Amino acid sequence: MIRQFELVERLKTYDPSADEELLNRAYVFSMKAHGTQTRASGDPYFSHPLEVAGILTELRLDCYSIVTALLHDTVEDTLATIEEIEELFGPEIARLVDGVTKLSRLELQSEATRQAENFRKLVLAMSNDIRVLLVKLADRLHNMRTLEFVPIDKRKRVARETMEIYVPLAERMGMQGIKDELEDLAFAQLNTEARDSILSRLKFLHESSENAVSTIINELSEALTKSGINSQVMGREKTPYSIWQKMHKKNVAFEQLSDIMAFRIIVSTVPECYQALGVMHSNYLVIPGRFKDYISTPKPNKYQSLHTWLMGPLNHRIEMQIRTKDMNQISELGVAAHWQYKHDEEYHDGKQYAWLRGLLEILEQASGPEEFLEHTKLEMFQDQVFCFTPKGDLISLPKGSTSIDFAYEIHSAVGDRTVATKINGRQMPLRTILHNGDQVEIVTSKNQCPSPTWERFVVTGKARARIRKFVRSQQRQQFGELGKSMVHKAFIKEGIDFTDKNLSSVTHHFKHSHVEDLFAAVGQGVHTLKDVVVNTPGYVRKEDKNVNKFEEVLPIKEITKPSSKITHKTSLPIKGLIPGMALHFAGCCHPLPGDRIIGIVTTGSGVTIHTHDCEGVSSTIDPERILDLSWEDNLGAEERHVGRLKVIFFNKPGSLASMTTAISKQAANIVNLKVTHRTVEFWDLFVDVEVRNVEHLGVVQAALRAVPIINAVERI
Fold first, then answer.
1. Is the pLDDT of residue 481 over 60?
2. Active-site option among 77, 86, 181, 184
3. DSSP 486-517
4. Is the CB of residue 148 less than 8 Å from the CB of residue 126?
5. Catalytic residue among 19, 43, 76, 441
6. What is the C-alpha to C-alpha distance for residues 468 and 688, in angstroms, rounded to an integer?
7. Can 272 be counted among the known catalytic residues?
8. Beta-carbon neighbour count of residue 252 at 10 Å?
9. Can you give the pLDDT at residue 324?
10. Element (H, E) at 558
11. 87 in catalytic set
12. Band of pLDDT at residue 566, cut at 50, 70 and 90
């Protein structure tokens, strides 16, 4: 355990102006507060905050950070209060301690919810001062170092949380050393056998080629010296977890990995980085497609380096990293390297970091802690691609991102209004995956709004959270209008006054804050009309009344499910429905104008329109949820609906062209084709066709039957 004078000496070595008296007071206060408390290992509990403070001195952090580390558990685990901390150590330290204090006392329902809520509050705290996260990372690192003393089930949980949350956060902070150690300690708990196997193979590799590393370093140093470049060359072995990851990613055995060692060249200036790169490429064979320039395009965590792969000395495939001394320091210490022992608030404000601003924006859009944690994992766990705006601004995105992700990265309003995209000057589908170096131009329209279908192909948590928020708000409005109409009809039928007093009473009974929440819950199917009516003060039970049946003929409007556009001005041509109800057409029967139809009110989906004889409608469904509907008599010629046909045709050259031509000649449009069965002689297809009504679909079927290559046509 570090002694008091040792901690002071460590801080004084890099910050001679540090407040020694403040540090000593914090040391004594924490030691007295924790008193006789012990850890699972049997050590005095005070050893933990002391070791956390020691880790932060290795990062050369300021005096306030060290004091916060000493005090970070006093509020939760002792009788000390935030007010007492503020009185003794000042408001800034009190704010930092409050931000770092563990949140395990939260009365939440599940472990997953508790983890998500803790992480949400951590993000809010570190957005005000990034030192909160630095202390938290040091706290987690020491806990991981002593994890063997806690029960096995807790070990697994803590290790998994470390891998899912704290490792990506350390990486985003650019703190490679802490990231690697956290990763390896978690890996040791989550997959002990795999780690031990890799360590034993590494040991064998060292014994069999102990001179290879020194030989490679000497030869590389000699080549650089001959070219007049003053440099330092070192070898760095990859961690067991990074080796394990590479084995899984490439699906290869340990023996097939060629870059277990990475060699690093440290020079003085940026021009020397590129000179050293030229020397390496002129002296050794370059492995194609493996060069990366993170100096001209730094990673989001400010990491800069040149990466190249060579067939180097001794005919070894080696990974080479070339960087300056400053770049190397930033690589190891991350954000701590930018403002060590500085007291300027500009360096502490977490909002200066783009990745943290992105997390805060996700926090605003997410419906709850669990969704926030889900989107944040998406945001943090991806490799990066670098794309450019037409003006040349660099946008970094996770690998697999699309133009929609790009648009939301620029600004949420741009993402919401996106209608088209041009990639490298060529118009492309919005779902097109972006690659390094792509120039992306986003075309917007003030009349556009997010489509629920976008969620299927976006990969950033920011985009997904924004899309989900929009869909939730639209569906809530529609469910609310539907529920209000249903309750109103039910009240009229039962002779109950539709008054604020009655509505407020039943709203209070169901524990909703507002009557709009009650309407939305009814429209979504959370509450039945029977429950609402019988719990209304104006309801009088009559023996001859059957309260189990509440039949309504309710109006309806279009919902975006999955690709139709939300509109508040035009209603669908269906009798018995009013604007405001969420609606989509069933994919099992594809109802068309002219079919007899029914509506099924379903929880979370509004009303689904089926044909009256659809086999997909369960015979056990509650009759209360079945609406008797019909199409309007005068339908506009511009209205189009999708019908599905099953087509079997002879497998001959030109058959598919003949089929599509026959459909287009009938003024119908194919929106989807799916091959369900294929042999040498026949193809079976499902063809989704946009038509005006069921008669129009019949004309299309007749036209197809007239084509010689068509064997059979039937409606699905």
1. yes
2. 77
3. HHHHHHHHHT----HHHHHHHHHHTT-SSHHH
4. no
5. 76
6. 28
7. no
8. 12
9. 93
10. none
11. no
12. very low
